[in-house]
Specification:
Largest sheet: 2 strands, parallel
Low-confidence stretches: none
Helix content: 40-55%
Number of helices: 5
Radius of gyration: 19 Å
Strand order of the largest sheet: 1-2
């Protein structure tokens, strides 16, 4: 289901960028920490347990086969979106903020007394 949503959003952004004249190289890579979902998006077999997501599965599979989207595994510890969607330890959050290069400092190392 998340792949279907991510694919839908990616296709919308591709159309938007096309309308405003920004070039986009395809396929667009969508990073995920779900190897099972990646395998389903590339697998030609239909399993009994995937029946209830059949429509979403075929939607994603269609665009993956058309080489418009590409799914790539990224470990959860390196997934930058996790600190926006999951409760994580403070140190992990600050590591991800540092990796984004936002120029922020943890409160305990920030200059004190400025109000």
């Amino acid at each position: 289901m998340a792949f279907s949503w991510a694919t839908t959003q990616t296709l919308w952004l591709l159309k938007y960028f096309e309308e405003i004249g920004l070039p986009v190289t395809q396929p667009v890579t969508i990073h995920t920490d779900n190897n099972g979902a990646i395998a389903l998006s590339m697998n030609n077999k239909n399993y009994q347990y995937t029946k209830y997501i059949n429509m979403h599965y075929h939607f994603v599979k269609e665009y993956a086969e058309a080489n418009e989207v590409n799914f790539k595994y990224i470990p959860s510890t390196l997934n930058m979106a996790d600190f926006l969607t999951k409760p994580l330890p403070r140190d992990t959050i600050w590591k991800m903020i540092a990796a984004l290069d936002l120029g922020l400092q943890p409160l305990d190392t920030a200059v004190q007394g400025e109000c």
